[in-house]
Amino acid sequence: MTPDLFADQPAIWQEQLIPGAVVLRSQALMQADSLLATVAQLLVAAPLRHMLTPGGQTMSVAMSNCGHLGWISDRHGYRYSAQDPTSDQPWPAMPPSLQQLAAQAADLAGFAGFEPDACLINRYLAGTRLSLHQDKDERDFTQPIVSVSLGLPATFLFGGARRTDPILRIPLSHGDIVVWGGPARRHYHGVAPLKAGLHPVLGEQRINLTLRKAG
Ligand code: MD3
Ligand code: FE
């Protein structure tokens, strides 16, 4: 008989940071290559672009979207739009594989029936950062947010309900999925400047997929 070395291990390695915030290490690893092929296709239809903040600054993260709604920023503010402002066309449809991955992750974290209608694609290069903010452009805050990290590792900054609360630094690598629901949904968060590196699959980049129910 073959002894099962992992018999006492849980099938899924999950860490709860605070209630509702669950890190699922390597949960997307097996699908990472096909996920990236899918993302490459999406970016042909809706290329990455650097959006303007309402204050007129160019964001260092390059972004695109898929799904019924896409997150956009310009001089008029932050909001969701059914059209890509670059092409005035609808965003590419959300691939079922992506929707299923997000729903499964949300389910593992205790949020059954998650049906994302928006997927923000964030691309980081060396030095790219995302300053501390709250996600509050969505309608229903009882719905979690699922994020999938691909490529170079990043340090995720996880704060509290107030901007001045202490900040936890969480390393996120290729294939990690995080579910942000419950009280964590309203917490301040950001990403520290990306360190230069060479990822075997994605090269000099990090790609983060953020799936939400926005509408
Ligand atoms: C914690 N993106 O697009 S995803 C964003 O890595 C964003 O690109 C980051 O924050 C990135 O808005 C982080 C993880 C994430 C997303 C939403 C959250 C963490 C969150 C909402 C509440 C608390
Ligand atoms: Fe955010």
From TrEMBL:
SUPFAM superfamilies: Clavaminate synthase-like (SSF51197). Gene3D superfamilies: Alpha-ketoglutarate-dependent dioxygenase AlkB-like. Keywords: Dioxygenase, Iron, Metal-binding, Oxidoreductase. Its EC number is 1.14.11.33. It holds the Pfam family 2OG-FeII_Oxy_2. Residues 115-215 form the Fe2OG dioxygenase domain. One of its GO terms (molecular function) is broad specificity oxidative DNA demethylase activity. The keyword Transmembrane helix does not apply. Its cofactor is Fe(2+). InterPro entries: Alkb (IPR004574), AlkB-like (IPR027450), AlkB-like_sf (IPR037151), Oxoglu/Fe-dep_dioxygenase_dom (IPR005123). PROSITE patterns: FE2OG_OXY. It comes from the Bacteria. NCBIfam families: PRK15401.1 (NF011930). This is DNA oxidative demethylase AlkB. It comes from Chitinimonas viridis.
